[in-house]
From TrEMBL:
This is Two-component system response regulator. One of its GO terms (cellular component) is cytosol. Keywords: DNA-binding, Phosphoprotein, Transcription, Transcription regulation, Two-component regulatory system. The modification 4-aspartylphosphate is found at residue 51. It comes from Pseudoalteromonas ulvae. It comes from the Bacteria. Residues 124-220 form the OmpR/PhoB-type domain. One of its GO terms (biological process) is regulation of DNA-templated transcription. One of its GO terms (molecular function) is transcription cis-regulatory region binding. The keyword Nucleus does not apply. It holds the Pfam family Trans_reg_C. Residues 124-220 bind DNA. The keyword Transcription regulation applies. Gene3D superfamilies: 3.40.50.2300, Winged helix-like DNA-binding domain superfamily/Winged helix DNA-binding domain.
Amino acid sequence: MIVLLAEDESHLATLIIDYLEAEGVECDYAPNGRIAMNLLKTSHYDAVILDIEMPYYDGFSVCEQLAALPFCPPVMFISARSELDDKLKAFSLGAVEYICKPFELAELLARLNIMIRVKQPANVNQFTLDTLTVDFGQRQICRSNRVITLSPKQWQLMTLLCHHSPNLVSKDHIMASLWPDQTDNIDKYKTLLNRLRHNLQRDGEPVLLHTHRGAGVVLK
């Protein structure tokens, strides 16, 4: 199981991550809503844990934007806000759980496990194109019965392209998603794209990764 925790209180985030990882749950961390959205666009998660009050995008905004993504994981809110209106707003946006701070970490894990038990549609966890299969749950890519090993950045790019396939993903969107806090990433972008293409393609196989000069990339 892999989850995304979006929480701007670093001390609380550390406590949650340490506890969950000790229980066998892999965690990615976002200290604000902008980084959370970048991760959600380029990675696949079994669940998302959101604080409400965060910089850039608050938890409600992140949850609302999640609905537009092809792969929408279940959402749990953790918040000091205990008012009924906040809970109802969270549920109206699609949240599955809402826990008020302070809470016991064991309760958070128990509720998280219940969320994960809800069976997701098969196409949420897998992408198939020609002889290519991407299993997001296992983080595994196969083509023509061979397993393809990708670097973390290649996996992020591949996930982003799968999310948007068969539509083109702009070069600017890719660079902003993969390197949100950096500029002048054109060389990194070109190198990453070439390495991903090399890993996916063997002689005689149909081309699946198409580059549109100056525009972006499409997987189709």
